[in-house]
Specification:
With 462 residues, the chain is mostly helical. It has a single domain, classed as Growth Hormone, Chain: A, CATH 1.20.1250.20. The chain is 74% helix and 0% strand. It contains 22 helices and no strands. α1 runs antiparallel to α11, α4 runs antiparallel to α11 and α7 runs antiparallel to α15. It is globular. The protein starts with 20 loop residues before the first helix and ends in a 10-residue tail after the last helix.
């Protein structure tokens, strides 16, 4: 391992000049816009599943069409590791910036094509087949997007503000949900009833083209991560980063994945479209109107955003681990209050249940970018954070809406769903407690020996 002074000290750009506030603000803005566009595209599908896809693409498949439709949300997660492996490999070899550009284009193209796709009544079984294929492309893109975005933010950040900077790409999730739900709610007003089924749902997908152009332009304007720039200049990039990752850090990847799984399973009650579908199902116990439910979800995205931002700042003061523990406790409270409030059939109380839940979700998501970046050595960091995130998404949110739908169908009650979500929260808490807090650890390539020491309690730190 190299021990000479870093050629790009923390707080400096790859050219050796001190990074200005404007430079960092540009990076933060680019990561927020890019991840918001990516997650808007990803969530607009899940929202549509709960509202229209079951009827338009899967209803002819039989009585289990709702479960099948929600399963397509989860199918994309199975391909996130492929996106993470590809992005991790190319991101550790060729840079964070180039990967982020291509994931944005892939996601936008897949989303826009969904908006043009004929329904089952028009082309038969090819409609759900093509829909699933496009959802798989979304999954590959999402698998590669997150790791690059968080590293661009965290690796540009001052040491004492990594949590705050890392929260910037994290708020792309609630912003994407807010945008997706808001646009869907607006279209439900513009094209109510049958018009929404006929053409209204397509507009939010087609809008992706405009968002992608904006996101692409902004992302192209930022500098490459200084950590990767130094690795490249010194020719110290890993030749086979994924092999190196699993050879020395396989257990760490799994534990980090469980941390995210505890958040992701609960978060996908809204981002996966389950609450929207459950609350608006005309044959269900609530049967609320589509528009008010979408506005309630949109409102809860605001509380999620604020909690995510707050958690990033708090983690810079209290540490990642302590902030997470607070978050798991808050999330558990939200899990136990969610369905009692949703099942009242009152839109205001439904919003209250979601708002309480999203405070805990924010505190178990805001610090994740900084936490993950501080777990892995510089030369394999993109692979480490991307693959941990992708595996966590499979173990957590991939089939959470499907599991929830099946549990309610089997038991006739949401109690089993609450137990399932509480169990996932406890899993996330346990995984967090297995990790040492490494807040402030140097991220540059000169400190790979320190970074490579295991952060897992009970494991050798030599």
């Amino acid at each position: 391992m190299s021990t000479r002074p870093s050629t790009v000290p923390e707080g400096f750009t790859p050219t050796g000049t001190i990074a200005t506030h404007a430079d960092r603000r540009r990076v933060v803005f680019a990561t927020v816009v890019g991840t918001t566009v990516e997650w808007y595209d990803f969530f607009i599908y899940a929202t549509a599943v709960g509202l229209v896809f079951g009827q338009l693409f899967f209803a002819p498949l039989g009585a289990n069409s709702a479960i099948i439709a929600f399963a397509t949300v989860g199918v994309s997660f199975l391909f996130r590791p492929l996106g993470a492996f590809l992005a991790g490999h190319f991101g550790d070899k060729y840079g964070r910036k180039v990967v982020l550009t291509w994931t944005l284009i892939l996601m936008g193209a897949a989303t826009a094509l969904i908006g043009l796709l004929p329904v089952y009544d028009t082309i038969g079984v090819w409609a759900p087949i093509i829909l699933v294929f496009l959802r798989i492309l979304q999954g590959i893109s999402a698998g590669g997007e997150w790791g690059g975005a968080v590293l661009m933010a965290v690796e540009h950040a001052p040491k004492k503000r990594r949590g705050a900077f890392g929260a910037s790409p994290q708020i792309g999730v609630p912003l994407g949900l807010l945008l997706a739900s808001g646009v869907m709610a607006l279209m439900a007003m513009i094209a109510p009833g049958d018009a929404f089924l006929e053409w209204g749902w397509r507009i939010p997908f087609l809008l992706s083209v405009v968002l992608i152009v904006v996101g692409y332009y902004i992302r192209r304007s930022v500098e490459e991560s200084p950590v990767f720039a130094e690795l490249s200049a010194r020719k110290e990039k890993a030749r086979m980063p994924i092999v190196t990752l699993f050879r020395g850090h396989a257990l760490l990847v799994f534990i980090a994945a469980l941390v995210f799984a505890g958040n992701n399973a609960v978060g996908y009650m809204t981002t996966g479209g389950y609450i929207q579908g459950y609350a608006t199902n005309p044959e269900g116990p609530i049967g609320l109107e589509r528009g008010p439910v979408l506005w309630a979800v949109t409102g809860s995205a605001v509380t999620w955003l604020l909690a995510t931002l707050a958690a990033g700042f708090v983690s810079d003061r209290l540490g990642r681990r302590t902030t997470y523990v607070i978050g798991w406790i808050l999330q558990l409270v939200g899990v136990f209050t969610l369905f009692p409030l949703v099942n009242t059939g009152d839109v205001g109380l439904l919003f209250g249940g979601l708002a309480i839940l999203t405070i805990g979700l924010g505190f178990t998501y805001g610090p994740q970018a900084a936490l993950y970046a501080e777990l892995f050595p510089a030369s394999i960091r993109f692979s480490g954070v991307s693959i941990s995130y992708a595996i966590g998404a499979i173990l957590g949110g991939a089939f959470a809406p499907t599991i929830a739908t099946a549990l309610v169908a089997a038991t006739g009650s949401t109690d089993a769903v609450t137990i399932y979500l509480a169990g996932m929260t406890v899993v996330g808490l346990a995984a967090t407690l297995l990790l040492r807090d490494r807040s402030g650890i140097p991220l540059g390539p000169d400190h790979e020996e320190e970074q490579a020491r295991s952060p897992i309690y009970g494991m050798s730190r030599a």
